[in-house]
């Protein structure tokens, strides 16, 4: 596929982690820590690693070996193990990692390509390993209008709507067990919305992201 957007500027502007300041980041970290156990010698791969900020978080919290792959080398740092590569053809053998994850990647591709990217996640994952997928919640949510106007229309990004039912179907097809699903964050970090975000009818509408943690 032809890359339609140059991610170099976006990666250059990313902030480092920690500190974790966003509501969604705190919820994401809590879900990971309560779902994925720590063990010696853990190997982790991030697909779309950007500047490696989440890989550095994993290295600190899980004392693991972190590997990253991205189309742009702009943010690559020496304290992780990054390579330039393609999410559709990961340059790793089958069953190579304990954890494979992508944050904000698959929504930039059409449905058939999203499936292929996730298939590669699963291929390089050990049996018993964990797949983590976090992406913007654009299905019947306030986030849809913000992303489509301020990112796609104004800045030239490309986001597609991904339905939870689509991901659940793909995970079932690949034989993955969904250990955790949640709507995380709150629309544009507006604090007054946090009071109603956890009320069932409003949860999906007000949340900024979706999070899946599955086990192979």
Structure, explained:
The protein has 216 residues and is α/β, with parallel strands linked by helices. The protein has one domain (8-215): Rossmann fold (3-Layer(aba) Sandwich). 35% of the residues lie in helices and 23% in strands. It is built from eight helices and seven strands, in the order ααβαβββαβααβααβ. The chain has helices at 8-12, 23-35, 53-62, 111-123, 142-155, 164-173, 194-197, 200-206, and strands spanning 43-47, 65-70, 81-84, 97-103, 125-136, 177-184, 209-215. Strands 3-2-1-4-5-7-6 form a seven-stranded mixed sheet, sandwiched between helices. Strand 1, helix 3 and strand 2 form a beta-alpha-beta unit. The longest helix has 14 residues, at 142-155. The mean pLDDT is 90.
